[in-house]
Structure formats: structure tokens, C-alpha cells
Amino acid sequence: MYMDNVVENPSGFPLELYVTTSKPNVSVNVIAPGYPLVVSLTDSLTAGTVKQFNIPKELRQVETGLERKAILVEATDDVVVYGVNKELFSNDAFLAYPTDTLGMEYFTVSYAPPTTNCEFGIVGVVDGTSLEITFPSPSGTPVQVSYGGVNYGNGDKLTVPSFNRSHTLQIRSQGDLTGTFIKATNPVAVFSGNVRTAVGESESRDHLVEQIPPIRSWGTEFVTVPIPRRTVGDLFRIIASVNNTAVTISGMPEMTIDRGEFVQVNISSTMYASIRATRPILVMQIVYSQFDPDEPADPAMITVPPTDQFAQEYSFLTPVYSGGVTGGDYTHLFLLAIREEDRNGLWLDGQPLNSTHTVNWNRISGTNFVGTWVNVSGGAHTVYHPNATFMGLLYGTADRETYGFPVGMRLADIAVNYTTPAVTVTTVTTEAPSTVTACTAALVEISDFNMALAFAIAVGVNLLTACLLIIATYKWRQAVGENKFEETMEIPYRPDSNGTIGGVGGVTTQPDPDHIDRNWLMNADDFEGHEKGSYDINSRL
């Protein structure tokens, strides 16, 4: 999906799509399902080659609205895909994610206050999907969105009941859309950024866009490499997925943010920093506007991958300059970070990196990582390490025009079973039982077959034994009559791809050893309809 990118004098550039592979022979099809007669492209790739596909500019989304402007890339083997959304003096690029890595829960991020609107876009992958979009609570410029004849503001919920394959929804607002929560009933793709904006005190503007990783692939450890040849520093926006998330950045006081909230910090142009969090976060690096002709640049937004999502190999093709300045061109820079002991094993285009470039490594405070950047020429490149993972970001700068994006990353579900603050479940009676566990007592009032099965799996007994225990407990409670007791248990709170949390209702794939005796999953909706007062969830979800 290509979001709105508005300039005073449109150039008519096509939308650019790049595809590369490390596999020997791959066939690629590029289509627009909503416009099959407009886009239907086919080509073949060999390992290390990159193909550029041009998409008609009419498939760029405009304003707030629902359309069918999705671009579908299908290949016979694994490929890497990225898009470039270019206008005169306004450009940015994004890494596109495979459909099998998409999720159902996202938070968006933009820069604010924007010169021209903040925006985000959603792409449908499965027919019959419904969307629930919750705009952020007030934190800056108020959100004002008009969709379907209804006006929405901060904290309001917009529902799209029928969102099908190849549907594209774009939302624009002059207010800050960062922290908008998107929940879908099937996997969707989400893009976020700004139509065109200045960042900082300069008035120079550019388009911002990134495809947003699903919450389940967020991480807790990050390292940063400053944008080269600048002195104004870099802006970072950090968004939390869980309440009470503590964030620590090299040389700064600890900050605490709640779910959907963000912090915005400036990190010096000389600082190679580490960012750590107690729970999964999303980190965006935003390039400041050009303020000096000696430091050509413009805004761009770059997803910083968690260290757990680094890969071993990246292939990419550098974008082409829009031609805004006669004789001008991009300077292309490859930013990377790797563990210090692995730095000598890097290869660029078939040769050891340290044999073709003078590499100045910089230690990243509080970690065993080092970071650097190198110039790369225009064209196709491959950066590789035989046995270590590393971060790779591509950044290009010209007079009043810039792009930046991660050239690849893993999108493993590393946040699915992440343990966060416990949910407290309280069962109330007046006479404490001597032989019945809190686990069994919590199941008594809803003791059906499904609960028995969940209990059996949780405590490691067979189904018959679980049923007998529950029946015995139920009979015991009947004998007790109105006598009641109060007992509280802590259940680990774990976000996963279905939005469930630690408790009853399913089984975790990776049990927390500290809670092995009661390691279940509970959906908050499971409590609806049960006897009032039976369960008390003392945690904000």
C-alpha cells in the first residue's frame, strides 16, 4: 500500500517496488487485485539480483477513505520486498512484510505536530475481516477524523465491519495519531507515518512511512546508530505495548510508559545508544529536517529492529533520486550494528567489508555491540555474515530529500509469551478450605467440560482426574453452603497474537518456569456473564 504523499508541484513519478532474493531461481508476480487490468507484472530473479517494478501513481491512496489499492507480490520462493513512495522533494521507503508474519494487533506511529497530516493505512489480507480502531487518548494536538459521515476524536472507536482482501483504508488527521490501536479479526498489514512534514525547527518537509510490525514481534533490546554527517541528533519515538513499561536509554533517566503511550527523545549525533525496556516496545528513528546546506537531509522514519530480530544477510537496491536539483543525487549510506566479536566476519558484495572500506567502529554503551556506517554506491548490494546476525539500515540523503528503512529483519513472535505484570484473580468465601487449591476453587462456578480440559492440561493430570477433582470440589462447596472464604492468586499476564492474557482459556506454548503450576491463558472476555463478584481482575488491560 502506498499512502498519500502530497506536494505543491506533483511530478507524476510512478510508485516503485523492489524485489530481491537469495534463492537461485524465483518467479515473481506483482498485481493489484482491485485493478487487475492496471497492474499485472511478471519477472524472474536469481540470487543477489534486484528487480524494480513501477506501479501507476493512481494507486497511491488519497485522503481518508476505503479503497482497493493493495499491491500483491507473489513469488515461487522467499523474496525481500520494499517500496519507495516518491514525489519531488518528498520521498520515503519501507520494508514490506510477508503475509505469514502479519498480526491482528498494532499501534501506529507518526511525527507530530505535522506540517501536513499524520496518516496510517491498513491492508486487508483475508475476506470477512472486521476492524476496530481506537484513537489515542489526548497527548498532543487533538485527533479529528471524519469517516463514513461520522466524526471521531481522541479515545473514540471506529469500527469497519467488512474489510476484505485487497481493501485499503487510509486515515488522516492533523492531530497526532501515534498510539492509535488497531485490532482486526484476521491478519492485516499496517503502514504509518505522515503525508509530508517538517521535523524540528526547519521548514524543510518530506514524506514519512514505515510498515509497522505487529505487537507480537516487538522486542525489549535495541541498539541505535546515529544518522551520519549530521549535528542535530536524531529523534526517537518509543511506544509501549503493556502498562508500566520501564524504558532505559544510554545516559538518560529511566522512563515509564503505559500501553499505547510513547516517549519522544533526542539522541546526540555522536551517540551510539542502547535502548532497553522491561516489556516489548516499538522504536522509531526520525530524521530531522535540513537546516544547513552543508548537512543535506530531510525527514525520514526508520523502524529500529530489536536485537532478537536481526538477520544474517541483506540484499537491496538503492532508490533513485527524484531529480529535484539538477545534477543532484543521493548519497547512500549503510548503517549497521553487530556484536563486537563478530565484526570482522562481515562481507559486502562478495568481499570482506574491512578490505574495501575503512570502518570506524563505535562501542554501543552498556552492550557488547558496536556500530558504524559505510558509503555504498548506487545499485544492488548484498551484506552478509556467515554465522552472526546484525542490524542493517539503508539511508539516502540529497538536498531536501531523504529516505531510510531497515533492509531486512526477522519477524518472529518474540513478544507472544512475554511475562508482564500479573492479573489478580480473587475468589470469595468465608471459610478457607484445607484441601482445595485456589486453582480448583476458581474453576468451581464454571466447571464445564472445556474448563476441565484446560485445568487438566494446566496441572498435568488426565481429563478424568480433573473432572473428579472439580466434581468433588463442587460437592464440597455445596456442603459448605453459604460459608465463604477469600483467596487470591497471581496469574502471569502475557500478550499473544489473540489478545489473550495469562489465565484460564488455553495453554501457553512456552510455560514460565516461575509459574509452572498455573500457567494458563485467559481471555478477558471469558469473565463476561459470570456471577458478579466471582472474579476481580485488578489490572488495566
Automatic annotation (TrEMBL):
Domain IgGFc-binding protein N-terminal intervals: 92-396
Domain of life: Eukaryota
Entry keyword set: Membrane, Transmembrane, Transmembrane helix
InterPro entries: IgGFc-bd_N
Any Pfam family the entry gives: IgGFc_binding
Ranges that cross the membrane: 451-474
Protein name, UniProt field: IgGFc-binding protein
Organism: Lingula anatina (Brachiopod)
Gene: LOC106167546
